[in-house]
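Write out the bound-state structure for adenosine-5'-diphosphate.
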Amino acid sequence: MIEKLVTSSLKMGVIAGGQLGKMLIQEASRWDITTYVLDPDEACSARNVVSQYVKGDVRNFDDVYAFGKQVDLLTFELEDVNIEALQKLKSEGLKIVPDPDILALIQDKGLQKEFYVKHNLPTSDFACYEDEEQIKEALDSGALAYPFVQKLRKGGYDGHGVSVVKGENTSLLKGAFMVEGLVDIEKEIAVIAARNAKGEVRCFPAVEMTFNDETNLVEEVICPANITDAQSKEAEKLAHEIISKFHMVGLLAIEFFIDKSGNILINEVAPRPHNSGHHTIDSIVTSQLKQLLRAILDLPLGSTQLISSSVMLNLLGEPGYEGPVYYEGFEECMAIEGVKIHLYGKKSTRPFRKMGHVTILSDSVEDALEKVKEVKKVLKVKSWEK
Ligand code: ADP
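---
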């Protein structure tokens, strides 16, 4: 493998060709690595940058297995992948980064929480239930009380599969789930950690995330987070500990809550590049994608030094528009100092679809946030069709 390392004779497979897959492939192409992507959508974001597009369902055993057979090493850009196929490929000697066993654990929010408790890592109280009946029994016996947060153990994303249950009138989600105490959240922050096979770990600076009330999607990612030095050190220390305790190689994005008393609690993790790391492309010496490639290829990890303060804004499809996309105000937006526009190449928009992001670099977060207001005013994702 080593002689193939950064040449076109190395075939790297990426499971799913969304924006994160596209960004990783763009990075790999700088080294001339031959890239393969598996995605059901022929018009996926990665399609126009990947060396070899393979059509297939990432949740289907046969599709994932056949894809793995074509490449020298494999990684993924989303969690919802067929684990059995990955495990079979691994048992047959394919290098898969991160390890499928870690993915299997992280796919299940209940197992994730048990892991934190076992390793004495701070997280909110929780319990796992099989069905609604068990919740009702727990409520009757006093073991559980309103309000609580119900989360599907598997398959949730962007707030789908999470419900705040305030009382009897909130209907419960169906499926295996876990229940958490409602945290009185002051801020939501994230740290992305990277680890290579030699055990070297580097963390990106903590970022602060703000959410859109209507969509639950991350609206802005602010770097550095407006938290105390002690809090950012604590979050980085925890990130270092978590990735090391998973013994994982690759990238781990860790989302934390800071509660009103200042406690830092682990919410959840994702073993892949992450929305909260988009700014790293423009504002950190080594981007999250470059770092992941280094980890995958067992190279020394790169500097996570901040080049500039930044705010990242997700560019979402404007409500009321669905169809072939155009970007209104693109030129005006480009005239704003420090603005970097990233478009994912999705052909059609729909309300709140993630179509791109904008990173605004500035000497101060305050100034970047002012510019965010201008960007929001001028740049809109629309369609000629309604
Ligand atoms: P997803 O995997 O869909 O991103 P999360 O577990 O991150 O799900 O939850 C989505 C959002 O719900 C969080 O960003 C947070 O705002 C809110 N949330 C989740 N868990 C809790 C909790 N225990 N207490 C209060 N709010 C929560």
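---
The chain is about 25% helix and 30% strand.
Residues 124, 149, 151, 156-159, 161-162, 180, 182-183, 185, 188, 211, 255, 267-268 surround adenosine-5'-diphosphate (CB under 6 Å).
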